[in-house]
Known about the structure:
With 122 residues, the protein is an alpha+beta fold. It has helices at residues 3-23, 27-30, 59-68, 70-80, 96-108; strands spanning 34-41, 47-54, 88-93. The chain is flat, with a radius of gyration of 21 Å.
Amino acid sequence: MANYRRGRINDEMKKELSLVLREVKDPRLKDAFISITAVEVTGDLKFAKVYYSAMMGDKKEIAKGLKSSAGYIRREIAQRLNLRMTPEFSFHEDHSIEHGAHISKLLNGIEITPEEDGESDD
Length: 122
């Protein structure tokens, strides 16, 4: 499969997964603000890695909730997307947002002092 097709499938899958997660009635997922950051579908469309980040809630409980609702999510995606095969989802927590916030905090904490006027490189 061409890479541009896989990229389009990844993007469409990400968009639809975000919508489906709003409809999941699992209490572990209902209160947690979950956002899908990326989806990587294999070339044969059998498996998909879904990267997510959650702002609230217990990380372990959210992972259990996603794993238990994977069948429902797969069925909903199969109905919404017209694909020959619907992949099996594996959910992985994405720490890139937290990492970016940490780097931003470090950069904002740097204090730049003006150079002394007595030194010159003439």
